[in-house]
Amino acid sequence: MKHMASERHTLSILVDNEAGVLARIVGLFSARGYNIESLTVADVTADHAVSRITVVTSGPPPVIEQIMAQLDRIVPVHRVLDLTALGPHVEREMALVKVAGTGAARDEALRIADIFRARPVDTTTGSFVFEVSGPTSKVDQFIALMREVGLVEVARTGVVAIARGAEAV
Amino acid sequence: MGAEMTGADIVVKALTDLGVEVIFGYPGGAVLPIYDAIFAQSRIKHILVRHEQAAVHAAEGYARSSGKVGVVLVTSGPGATNAVTGITDALMDSVPIVVLTGQVPTHLIGTDAFQECDTVGITRHCSKHNYLVKETARLGPVLHEAFYIARSGRPGPVVIDIPKDVQIFKARYEKPGVIGHKTYKPQIKGDRASIEAAVEMLAAAERPILYTGGGIINSGPVAAQLLRELAKLTGAPVTSTLMGLGTMPNEHPQFLGMLGMHGSYEANMAMNRCDLMLCLGARFDDRVTGRLDAFSPNSTKIHVDIDRSALNKTVRVDLGILGDVGGVIEDMIKIWKSRGHKPADLEPWWNDITGWRARDSFGFEQKGKELLPQHAIKRLYELTKAQKPIISTEVGQHQMWAAQHFGFDAPNKWLTSGGLGTMGYGLPAAIGAQLANPGALCIDIAGEASIQMNIQELGTATQYRLPVKVFIINNEYMGMVRQWQELNHGGRYSESYSDSLPDFVKLAEAYGWKGITIEDADGLDAGIAAMLAHDGPVMVDCRVTKLANCFPMIPSGAAHTDMILSAADTLGEADEDAKALV
Ligand SMILES: Cc1ncc(C[n+]2csc(CCOP(=O)(O)OP(=O)(O)O)c2C)c(N)n1
Ligand SMILES: [Mg+2]
């Protein structure tokens, strides 16, 4: 199975919001040699009892299956969902992108930001911080363009994802 | 609501409510309140070991030989870190134990306090689950939940880290009713349609094999009975992993013996050539499969396991059934009977097997005075089998020879460190087994190197008057290491000679044991008889020939069909790929 093509999968892991739970999840990935491309976590219920962890990972299908099974074994894990396998879902991430420059470069940065619907959330005479959100590819593209007009640094959230339609998972 | 009690009293009360009779432990600053609570009662017996690693192995031996949960109590810092090997061992071999560790008081956690260590961090990936209990009121519920988690589903070790202040503060304790868990819900009952499909596949098979493992033992003694019934109904051959020995009677005509790296030729050949493999509570370990791409290439595979992650982990199967193996076998039997299935005509298949059996792959020839280790173990078996002994082992050649030549007829009689392969396991495990089975004959079949890894436990046996026997297969080598060096590393015996060995007889006597030496083949039976005749603990230094190798052997990374049956088949120096494998 090592020789099968790798696939990118987005997993949703619902866990009890208790001390150490993130360490259990992340530690499992490192202990067993699985990839983490991105990871986000926050509690998602009114009583703060349940956290939703979104992990983007990659591997051949049997490895993805094994990752799911291993995650499912962790005691405080409620459910593990492979959103990629389950079907249509929305994936978004947000980035804060700092650009410095004056003159034409500064104008160009603003123009590109406008096209990407990125909002300036901080401005000085020599810099902007843009907030951009969307699918990973859009954020990647925006950052690539900013590189040409004075990119200073980037902070990204990583992917959050949810299944389409009316039902809860 | 119950009355207010200290955390330490809650620990002892909860353990009592959980039916705990024995705790294996070692005191220290961070658990003194619990030791105080133990002092004040007489329901639970505390066994003072000499090293925390041994406490855990003793609890494993207790658990595996009795089906109960083993309990360990150790202090913070070095107490907890010393326990880590045992905890990992229990995880690998699915042994239900609960380990209570002391911790520095909550306000000192994170300050590098004296004897502080991050116990939950360190044990996170070597336990089935772990807790840091920060409030006294949580102690009761956590203890009950920990036992439930340790023993249910795929059993394993659960660690509870208890800061000292939590042991001293007071809270109310109440014995809970039925334990459920909001997220942990092992699936016990196998899917009906899948089980029906499995029965049809089994009934249609021409060359079936039942590949069984430790899961059957963990499922309870009934599961072994059910396995025997299924074997009878189907007429299929049965093989077992190292961990599953005893589920099928050793002498049963359908039993092919252990499979895998040092398994029988017939078991491995049958695994290779079968058309249907029914894996029951085993996990396709690399010691069993050998080279994966050559593992049983033409069979349809069914896997029954209680751990979803065991299904399709290394070997892709055609049908996975998640559930308790005993229950699944029971369902299979019912369905088999209700559908009126009869054993298929397996005669051609049994003819093949008979041919492989004729190779007598476990055979050896004892000639002259020089004692073969295989013969020593065979005689030990023959001279003790009427007493249905409980056997533990250390790790190495003697362990594999014990698996090959000591016959087991019932589950829970064979205690060995299979997954982790921990030298030093056998003596404390025998101590634990003896405590769980006071009248039983408990023997640790040891190697002269391994036994030194927990030799201090001789004192524990003496203190509690446990008549355990240690039977050392003394070849003056770390034999298994030496064997690999002979086969893979050009015979360069780097650091594998057991130099400066103690005089085991004097050592035994120093601890109040009886010591016996068996010098050669002529003295074997008399030595064993003397061991059995003594009603206290006995250590036997059984001198065997030094350079025997354990065969048959599938070299690491080789296929089942590339089995080495005797020294004559051995290869020269291994290539790099083979050397890289363990
Ligand atoms: C704690 C530990 N350290 C190292 C090993 C590696 N190892 C496996 S078998 C073995 C030699 C055991 O020698 P002995 O107890 O004399 O048994 P023999 O093989 O000679 O029967 C060693 C060092 C191990 N299994 N466990
Ligand atoms: Mg040895």
Give an overview of the whole structure.
The complex is a heterodimer of chains A (169) and B (582). Chain A has 2 domains: 80 residues, ACT domain (Alpha-Beta Plaits, 2-Layer Sandwich), CATH 3.30.70; 73 residues, ACT-like. Chain A, domain 2 (Alpha-Beta Plaits, 2-Layer Sandwich). In chain A, 31% of the residues lie in helices and 40% in strands. In chain A, the strands form 2 sheets. In chain A, strands 5, 6, 7, 8 and 9 form a 5-stranded antiparallel sheet that branches. In chain A, strands 2-3-1-4 form a 4-stranded antiparallel sheet. With 582 residues, chain B is an alpha/beta fold. Chain B folds into 3 domains: 169 residues, Rossmann fold; 166 residues, 3-Layer(aba) Sandwich (Rossmann fold); 178 residues, Thiamin diphosphate (ThDP)-binding fold, Pyr/PP domains (Rossmann fold, 3-Layer(aba) Sandwich), CATH 3.40.50.970. Helices cover 37% and strands 16% of the residues of chain B. In chain B, the strands form 4 sheets. A 6-stranded parallel sheet of chain B has the order 3-2-4-5-7-6, with helices on both faces. In chain B, strands 11-10-9-12-13-14 form a 6-stranded parallel sheet, with helices on both faces. In chain B, β19, α21 and β20 form a beta-alpha-beta unit. In chain B, α8 packs across α13. Chain B is globular, with a radius of gyration of 24 Å. In chain B, 54% of the residues are buried.
